Amino acid sequence: MSAPPKIVVRNVSKVYDGTPVLERLNLNVEAGTFCTVVGASGCGKSTFLRMLLSQELPTRGHIEIDGNDLPDEPTPDRGIVFQRYSVFPHLTVEDNLILAGEFGASKLLGRTFGAARSKARDAVRETLEKIGLTPARRKYPAQLSGGMQQRLAIAQALIKRPKVLLLDEPFGALDPGIRVDMHDLLLGLWEEMSMTVFMVTHDINEAFKLGTRLLVFDKIRHDPQAPDAYGATITYDLLLTRSGQEPSPETLEELKRAGHMHPQE
Ligand SMILES: Nc1ncnc2c1ncn2[C@@H]1O[C@H](COP(=O)(O)OP(=O)(O)OP(=O)(O)O)[C@@H](O)[C@H]1O
């Protein structure tokens, strides 16, 4: 299995319609890191993920993956999972996965043959197994619980075996009990599949539990006359130990003060 990539962010800024959203992001992320990303609503966390996916391009600066500039467009080696609504309601679990794979359209149109078809089937079978959805493979999303739908969304991202996995509040809509199961699933997949992960969350406890590195986004420059004059940057960058870790009371206090603390039981 190939190694997960190293990601370097050099002086990246993003401006939308003249409004700076992110400014001077600099980051050196070792291969296989699990980065959790927190920050106030609207500070540019999703924009950061979209730039890592090449759905958005930086206004200034650039991002490197294993020493090369990121491609200008999304590629199969980078997968993303959103909070909800990424699955097709009129397709079964299995067909959602087939469509998510490169072989999707031709298989659905009945045009894959021989080796390609069996490769597609193998990839779907393997991914269903990994994600625990084999028994539900012929169901439609409406017949699945919220947790199972999110498993399917993760499976869609994993079927192309990405080396970078981007997660944008993937468990935000789930009940706390289900969320704990999803944490175990995600950590297992991360260990097994050798990926560099960036996960946005509003739950600081989740950020500490899952991450090997915590990034906090916030504005450091403020103009009271012009609240949109400056963008956010990385204000807090913490390596985490990963063994039953919880934020220290001092860290919690600091994050609370900065307005980042939204623990969800
Ligand atoms: N395509 C776009 N065009 C113009 N403005 C945009 C675009 N995408 C995002 N923005 C603006 O950029 C800012 C950052 O948005 P973004 O979604 O990245 O924040 P966020 O930190 O992920 O927020 P939340 O935590 O609420 O999801 C917001 O003010 C948003 O309105």
Which helices and strands occur, and which strands form pairs?
Blueprint: E1 7-16, E2 19-29, E3 34-39, H1 45-53, E4 60-65, E5 68-69, E6 78-81, H2 93-100, H3 104-108, H4 114-131, H5 146-158, E7 164-168, H6 176-193, E8 196-200, H7 204-210, E9 213-219, E10 232-239, H8 249-257
Parallel strand pairs: 3-8, 3-9, 6-7, 7-8
Antiparallel strand pairs: 1-2, 1-4, 4-5, 9-10
Helix pairs in contact: 2-5, 4-5
The structure holds adenosine-5'-triphosphate (ATP).
Residues 16-17, 21, 39, 41-47 line the site of adenosine-5'-triphosphate.
- Provide the list of bound ligands, each named once: adenosine-5'-triphosphate
Global shape? globular
Strand fraction equals: 15-25%
In round numbers, the mean pLDDT is 87
Radius of gyration over C-alpha positions, nearest whole angstrom? 19 Å
Descriptive notes:
InterPro entries: AAA+_ATPase, ABC_SmlMolc_Importer, ABC_transporter-like_ATP-bd, ABC_transporter-like_CS, P-loop_NTPase. Residues 244-265 are annotated as: Disordered. Residues 7-242 form the ABC transporter domain. Keywords: ATP-binding, Nucleotide-binding, Transport. This protein is an alpha/beta fold. The chain has helices at residues 45-53, 93-100, 104-108, 114-131, 146-158, 176-193, 204-210, 249-257; strands at residues 7-16, 19-29, 34-39, 60-65, 68-69, 78-81, 164-168, 196-200, 213-219, 232-239. It has a domain at 7-46 and 71-91 and 146-206 and 221-257: P-loop containing nucleotide triphosphate hydrolases (Rossmann fold), CATH 3.40.50. It contains eight helices and ten strands. The strands form two sheets. Strands 6-7-8-3-9-10 form a six-stranded mixed sheet, with helices on both faces. β4 and β5 (68-69) form a beta hairpin. α2 (93-100) runs parallel beside α5 (146-158) and α4 (114-131) packs across α5. The model has no long low-confidence stretch (mean pLDDT 87). Adenosine-5'-triphosphate (ATP) binds at residues 16-17, 21, 39, 41-47.
